[in-house]
Amino acid sequence: MGTGFVDVSYQAFDECRTRVRTASKEFDLGNVLKDSKSKAPAEPTSATLFGTLDGAHELAAKMDAAWTGIRVEMNSGQIKLESVERALDGVETNLRTAAAASGA
Hints:
Layout: H1 10-25, H2 29-33, H3 56-102
């Protein structure tokens, strides 16, 4: 469990990476909506969806903009969590390398 100079639990790194990986999948819009009756709309949204409503084209455009924003934010969250996972792996690798070099 020790590296000789730092007391480290590699199991904690593994558990944290696993939890981060699981959380990153929650930011995949396809996974979020997979078991839902709701589905992300096909882009571009057709104004005919709103029938003869005045401003239907503008409403469709706003709907597309909102969904684009949701997709961008979800993707950003997923990318950040994947970066955290890689960083945790890098820290653990460096600690293991240092421990091996020190003879611990």
